[in-house]
Amino acid sequence: MPGSTTTAALERAVHRYRQAPLLARWLVHGRAFLADLARIEQYVPRHGFIVDLGCGHGLFANLLMESSPQRRVLGVDLDPRKVEVARATVGDREGLRFEVEDIVAVPPPRCDAVTIVDVLYLMPPDDQERVLRNAAGALAEGAPLLVKSQEARIDPRYGLTYAQEVVAVSLGLTRGVRRRFHFPAREEALAMFQRAGFRAEVIEMPRRPYTDVLYLARKAPATQ
Ligand SMILES: C[S@@+](CC[C@H](N)C(=O)[O-])C[C@H]1O[C@@H](n2cnc3c(N)ncnc32)[C@H](O)[C@@H]1O
Questions:
Q1: What number of CA atoms fall less than 13 Å from residue 213's CA on the CB side?
Q2: Dihedrals φ, ψ of 117, to 5°?
Q3: Is 46 left (phi over 0), alpha (psi -120 to 50) or beta?
Q4: Mutation choice for ligand 1 from 41, 51, 77, CB with most ligand atoms inside 8 A
Q5: How many angstroms is it from 224 CA to the middle of ligand 1?
Q6: What is the distance in A from the centroid of ligand 1 to the CA of 219?
Q7: What 3-state class would DSSP assign to 16?
Q8: Rounded to the nearest whole angstrom, what is the distance from the C-alpha of residue 223 to the centroid of ligand 1?
Q9: pLDDT tens digit string along 51-72?
Q10: Of 37, 125, 126, which is closest to residue 75 (Cα–Cα)?
Q11: pLDDT at 178 over 60
Q12: Alpha carbons 69 and 48: distance in angstroms, whole number
């Protein structure tokens, strides 16, 4: 469970959006309330250069910065409108920046950890694997890749997961979508991590009303 320090960091991160347009502010508050970002943050290294792929408005990147001043963070997203909102939160912090980039086409720079929060389901499976391979290329052996995702399973909460995303996309709140969502089942996800060069373990997120899981993956040693 996130402690009070992490919760305070999330509040400070949200406060960074006080001048943002109303819709963006509303969405950021929604993410802060619904996405359990403070829990995910606790698995991210406290030092070093972190790249957040599909950063959206940059709330998680801001949380990473607010939780530990020893981090440097780059957030990358396809949507220039979101990146503009994210950039407006940076102020004079030199360790935080945001770029518009397609994370399927462009690998992240060399870094100490990669995070991906609620992004991969928007891409077909081949592209998801490409993003993981890109991340593997940026990390040293043993370095972490954290992927927060929802999994396909027979569970009423999976219906809620899917329905919420349909609404978000129909309202134009999430971009990068083709025709449908691609939530892998757990075995499919673990096999994909392995093919991409990671050893992954699953961390359950049972407090959430969706079928959320956190994959804590580490770059595997190169095979001979
Ligand atoms: C549901 S939002 C999550 C945003 C953020 N990670 C968060 O937790 O608040 C998914 C994000 O993935 C981004 N995205 C989708 N496909 C992408 C791609 N190919 N390259 C970069 N970003 C992408 C979307 O623009 C969107 O901002």
A1: 21
A2: -115, 110
A3: alpha
A4: 77
A5: 35
A6: 23
A7: coil
A8: 32
A9: 999 999 999 999 999 999 999 9
A10: 37
A11: no
A12: 10
Q: Which domains can be identified in the chain, with CATH numbers?
A: 4-219 (3.40.50.150)
What tokens does 162 get? 């899917």
The sign one gets for the Cα dihedral 45, 46, 52, 55 is: positive
DSSP string, 94-157: TTEEEEE--TTTSPPPS-SEEEEES-GGGS-HHHHHHHHHHHHHHS-TT-EEEEEEE---SSHH
| Contact indicator for 181, 121 with CB cutoff of 8 Å | yes
Q: Name residues contacting ligand 1 (CB within 6 A).
A: 31, 35, 54-56, 59-60, 77-79, 82, 102-104, 117-119, 122, 174-176
Residue 1, pLDDT > 60, answer no
Hey, what amino acid is at 96? L
Nearest 5°: CA angle at 43, between 63 and 132?
95
* Beta strands per DSSP E along 20-107: 48-53, 71-77, 96-100
Cα–Cα distance for residue pair 56/34, rounded to 1 Å: 15
Question: How much is the pLDDT for 197?
Answer: 97
For the segment 89-106, the average pLDDT, to the nearest whole number, is 97
First-to-last alpha carbon distance for the chain, in angstroms, is 40
Phi-psi region of 146 (alpha: psi -120 to 50; beta: other; left: phi over 0): beta
| Phi, psi (deg, nearest 5) at residue 161 | -55, -50
